[in-house]
Design goal:
With 200 residues, the chain is mainly α. Helix content is 73%, strand content 0%. Helix 1 packs parallel to helix 6, helix 4 runs antiparallel to helix 5 and helix 4 packs parallel to helix 7. This is TetR/AcrR family transcriptional regulator.
Length: 200
Amino acid sequence: MTDGQTVDRRVRRTQGMIIDAFLSLCQEKEFGDIIIKDITERANVNRSTFYAHYEDKEDLLNRITNEKLSALTRLSREQATPYEPGPDTLDPYYVALFEHLADNKLFYSVILGKMNNTLFADKMTAAIRESLHIRISSMNKEQKLLVSLDILLDYASFSIQGILTKWLAQQSIHSPRHMALQLTRLSLLGIYKATGITER
């Protein structure tokens, strides 16, 4: 391993410690009540180390949220390729989405739960909407859409966002793959068929 790689690894580790400390404090206190000393003591780093990476706690929060939004956008592009739909064939985008939230549960529980950050939630919904748009745009267009594209995208993206938030609030009682399967089936069947109102 080169010296540069060693330094990068050390920087990532330090930043990870600061981020984890900050998010754990956000679960215990209001954002406005958290001071830099709280973060550095929880992360076991000194103030100069904190300021070597971040300007203040607002900069720290902004950089964390921007990183997660970038990850969501990458998910939308990486999982945008068509797949063969089926009631037991998991949509890879839903799998990736729920696994991403599970891997970053502390962050999303704080931002969407404790902080109830509506701006981030709106941006998250927009990222999900983009992924659905990419998916629909890549499909065979021989069959005309039965509803307006804008309404379809809004309905689906807000529904998914709501389910993700509820899943986090319920402490992720179901596994990411279980949730991905449920959304796959809802997407495939639609509400009426999923409830058994109409024949399949």
